[in-house]
Write a structure and sequence with these properties.
By secondary structure, the chain is α+β, with helices and mostly antiparallel strands. The protein folds into 2 domains: about 5-75, Ubiquitin-like (UB roll), CATH 3.10.20; about 85-155, [2Fe-2S]-binding domain (DNA polymerase, domain 1). Helix content is about 35%, strand content about 15%. The protein has 5 helices and 5 strands. It has helices at about 25-35, 85-95, 105-120, 125-130, 145-155; strands at about 5-10, 15-20, 55, 60, 75. A 5-stranded mixed β-sheet has the order 2-1-5-3-4, with helices on both faces. The longest helix is centred in the C-terminal third of the chain and has 18 residues, at about 105-120. It binds FE2/S2 (inorganic) cluster (2 copies). One FE2/S2 (inorganic) cluster (FES) binds near residues 97, 103, 138 and 141.
Length: about 160
């Protein structure tokens, strides 16, 4: 290991990885460039749009803001992991994806929101869902279809 790199071990979508990386390398670049997981998108690259959202030990984070040194020992979940099918189906059924750049991050954030609702034993309302997804920007849909998709997924697709 050289002075300016760090060896980290972590899991992505249940698969363990050990990498030697510059400590400040962005998690987004680790995923897309080092591991070839290009499902996670880059929008602004500055923490403003949510396109790069992933789950870090179950919490939604902007992977463009997370340095590699912070993920040692963590479990990262990306849009390429298991368990997104029902939400993806709901997005398709409601026409909640247009250009698609926001869609992976939006679906990751939706999963985290619906899991929080389920853990709290509450049904998500349209207003709360819109607020919960406010950190994920979409230039195409106007958000109504995204909220409908999230609520459809919360109902189990019915
Ligand atoms: S690309 Fe990370 S928040 Fe926009
Ligand atoms: S579908 Fe284009 S930005 Fe959301």
């Amino acid at each position: 290991m050289s002075d300016d790199t760090l060896r980290i071990a972590f899991t992505v979508d249940g698969v363990r990885h050990e990498l030697e990386v510059p400590p400040l390398r962005r998690l987004l670049d680790v995923l897309r460039e080092d591991l070839g997981l290009c499902g996670t998108k880059e929008g602004c690259g500055e923490g403003e749009c949510g396109a790069c959202s992933v789950l870090d030990d179950g919490e939604v984070v902007n992977s463009c803001l997370i340095p590699a040194c912070q993920i040692d020992g963590h479990a990262i979940t990306t849009i390429e992991g298991q368990g997104f099918g029902p939400i993806q189906d709901a997005f398709l059924r409601e026409g909640a994806a247009q250009c698609g750049i926001c869609t992976p991050g939006m679906i990751v954030a939706t999963r985290a929101w619906l899991e929080r609702c389920a853990a709290d034993g509450v049904a998500p309302t349209p207003e709360a869902t819109r607020a919960a997804l406010a950190g994920n920007l979409c230039r195409c849909t106007g958000y109504a279809s995204i909220v409908r998709a999230a609520l459809l997924a919360a109902r189990g697709g019915t």
